[in-house]
């Protein structure tokens, strides 16, 4: 992985090289294994590398192509590297000496602006065209690698992380209050703004062309709505198995041998971990599997539909594979102890401070010398999609007998009520106001968000949410394709991935977010995911021979970090002190409902943490409010 930087002095000042050097130095923690740069008066590009791939030993300079016309700085892992090499006619002898950035340059020489659509993998890159005097930037379809930029007076600058841009005196250091408010309402990523004023990001799945006259951007990833037709349900399952194994296989490429994976009680991480174990076994390699669990002896109550300790189910999966070394990890630090470090590493508020177990797993992996950590973060939108929108699709297409059969199966096998079946089938086509009246307990934004009601009104966020497809009733959507595509485009994980690299030296890789796998899952008819009253039915069929029956049949979801409230209670004094500081921070005081947050800290309960109202108020509203407020305060450089 790599930290990128670049400067184009449109006013022709010749100090672009110095500016680029400063931006790279500010990002040294993301690329400690060496810097490389190129400059030509008013234009400069550079990178700092973190070597995680075998071929990274050949990445010792920026890539120059087309006879010197093109210069590239790239942060890239090409998962279809072999396919590209074959298409480009690059033989094995030469390929062994090429880093992924060099292969990417060869691809760009061939396809130029069409290159991103030919790639599978994680990437962010920039290309300077010396003849056309234009800069080209792009990110992968899920945005796993970050890329930020600033359009200033007489210059254009880019860097992987905001701290690179903030190395320049011309760029102001201040938070974007509106973006923070959107974050508190779980607003989808709808534009290019970052959490810092004046700093934008190349959006996931987009490309950008910068000239002296204009900046244009467009999406390069636009999956077509295609309905895949295979002969049988078994064929869909076999195709998914093959794609999952391939997605895992290409993500096992690494320079250092120790490798690990997350392993929860659920399907997604179990599918990834077991596929990795199967692929590694013939070479005698071992896989460390980490499961986040509550502290030893924890017996606190949890909601009836949740699992407090995912360790036993994860252990059942690991026991099927002799080359899996299973470790259970508990968080030990107070929740708010990570605030300052989070700001430094991620440069954005963290959505779920309650997930301190994930940081504890990072600590364990780093101590074990792990540099690659697999996860199944996007599995709910790919391999283990529930298929629930199939009910609405059946209703809309008039296939009501099939709808009744599926509904009956869900009631009989899945314990679902007919009222719920009808709601999933019909509610997407009803006005939102009517849905709210019909629902017994519609979600309340102010129940799970600490946003100031006044700020919500002034920014007109409700109307903006509607324009971005966010329905605060959280009802089912009309079809599975649009539901998943909307959710895939909702988040940007680039800063988080880069922060984990900088803080722990770990490259996070998600096979369930593989482009080819995601596009396959989007094309599979929703009924294949929901069949015979079984949600996630396709994943059940595909991996029934790889996972324990207890994992496949478990209907409850894991409550990750079930002892989270103990970490919050241990941070009670810290929370009070942070709220005092936020009172003096104008952006935080404007965006947050500080009076409510203070009351929550004052009234912090000693029990009842499993209740919905308490979970929403503390696990969601208070912790996300503190995360956002701390970010705003730090970004204002106030009350250090």
From TrEMBL:
GO terms for biological process: asparagine biosynthetic process. It holds the Pfam family GATase_7. It is an enzyme of class 6 (ligase). Its EC number is 6.3.5.4. GO terms for cellular component: cytosol. The keyword Ligase applies. Residues 2-213 form the Glutamine amidotransferase type-2 domain. InterPro entries: Asn_synth_AEB, Asn_synthase, ASN_synthetase/amidase, AsnB_N, GATase_2_dom, Ntn_hydrolases_N, Rossmann-like_a/b/a_fold. Gene3D superfamilies: Glutamine Phosphoribosylpyrophosphate, subunit 1, domain 1, HUPs. Keywords: ATP-binding, Glutamine amidotransferase, Ligase, Nucleotide-binding. PROSITE patterns: GATASE_TYPE_2. GO terms for molecular function: asparagine synthase (glutamine-hydrolyzing) activity; ATP binding. Belongs to the asparagine synthetase family. This is Asparagine synthetase [glutamine-hydrolyzing]. It comes from hydrothermal vent metagenome. The lineage of its organism: unclassified sequences, metagenomes, ecological metagenomes.
């Amino acid at each position: 992985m790599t930290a990128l930087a670049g400067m184009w002095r449109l006013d022709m000042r010749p100090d672009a090289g110095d500016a680029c050097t400063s931006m790279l130095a500010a990002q040294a923690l993301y690329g400690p294994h060496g810097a490389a740069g190129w400059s030509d008066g008013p234009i400069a590009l550079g990178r700092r590398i973190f070597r995680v791939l075998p071929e990274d030993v050949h990445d010792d300079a920026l890539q120059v192509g087309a006879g010197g016309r093109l210069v590239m700085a790239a942060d890239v892992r090409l998962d279809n590297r072999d396919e590209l090499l074959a298409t480009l006619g690059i033989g094995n002898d030469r390929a062994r000496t090429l880093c992924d950035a060099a292969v990417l340059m060869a691809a760009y020489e061939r396809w130029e602006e069409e290159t991103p659509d030919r790639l599978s993998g994680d990437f962010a890159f920039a290309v300077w065209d010396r003849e056309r005097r234009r800069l080209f930037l792009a990110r992968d379809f899920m945005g796993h690698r970050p890329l930020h930029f600033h359009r200033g007076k007489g210059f254009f600058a880019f860097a992987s992380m905001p701290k690179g841009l903030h190395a320049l005196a011309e760029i102001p250091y201040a938070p974007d209050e509106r973006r923070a408010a959107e974050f508190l309402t779980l607003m989808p990523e709808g534009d290019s703004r970052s959490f810092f004023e004046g700093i934008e990001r190349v959006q996931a799945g987009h490309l950008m062309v910068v000239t002296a006259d204009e900046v244009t951007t467009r999406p390069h990833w636009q999956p077509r709505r295609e309905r895949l037709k295979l002969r049988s349900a078994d064929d869909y399952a076999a195709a998914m198995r093959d794609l999952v194994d391939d997605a895992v296989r290409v993500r096992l490429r690494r320079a250092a041998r120790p490798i690990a994976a997350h392993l929860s009680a659920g399907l997604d991480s179990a599918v990834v971990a077991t596929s990795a174990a199967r692929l590694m076994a013939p070479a005698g390699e071992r896989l460390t599997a980490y499961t986040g669990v509550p502290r030893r002896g924890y017996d606190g109550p949890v909601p009836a539909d949740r699992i407090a300790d995912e360790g036993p189910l994860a252990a059942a999966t690991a026991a099927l594979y002799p080359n899996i070394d299973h470790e259970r990890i508990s968080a030990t630090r107070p929740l708010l102890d990570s605030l300052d470090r989070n700001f430094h590493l991620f440069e954005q508020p963290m959505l779920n401070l309650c997930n301190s177990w994930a940081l504890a797993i990072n600590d364990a992996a780093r101590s074990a010398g792990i540099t690659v950590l697999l996860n199944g973060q996007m599995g709910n939108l790919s391999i283990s999609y529930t298929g629930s929108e199939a009910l609405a699709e059946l209703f809309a297409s008039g296939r009501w007998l099939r709808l009744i059969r599926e509904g009956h199966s869900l009631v009989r096998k899945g314990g679902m009520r007919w009222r719920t079946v009808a709601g999933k089938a019909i509610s997407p086509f009803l006005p939102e106001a009517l849905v709210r009246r019909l629902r017994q307990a519609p979600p309340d934004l102010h129940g799970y968000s600490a946003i100031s009601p006044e700020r919500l009104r002034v920014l007109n966020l409700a109307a903006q949410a509607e324009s971005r497809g966010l329905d605060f009733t959280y009802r089912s959507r009309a079809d599975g394709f649009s539901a998943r595509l909307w959710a895939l485009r909702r988040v940007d994980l680039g800063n988080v991935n880069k922060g984990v690299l900088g803080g722990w030296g770990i490259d996070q890789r998600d096979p369930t977010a593989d482009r080819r796998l995601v596009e396959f899952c989007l094309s599979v008819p929703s009924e294949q995911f929901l069949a015979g009253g079984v949600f996630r039915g396709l994943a059940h069929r595909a991996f029934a021979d790889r996972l324990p029956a207890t994992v496949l049949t478990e209907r409850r979801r894991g409550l990750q970090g079930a002892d989270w409230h103990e970490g919050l209670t241990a941070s009670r004094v810290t929370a009070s002190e942070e709220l005092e500081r936020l009172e003096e921070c104008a952006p935080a005081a404007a965006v947050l409902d500080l009076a409510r947050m203070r009351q929550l800290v004052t009234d912090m309960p000693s029990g009842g943490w499993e209740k919905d109202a308490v979970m929403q108020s503390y696990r969601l509203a208070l912790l996300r409010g503190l995360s956002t407020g701390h970010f705003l305060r730090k970004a204002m450089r106030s009350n250090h």
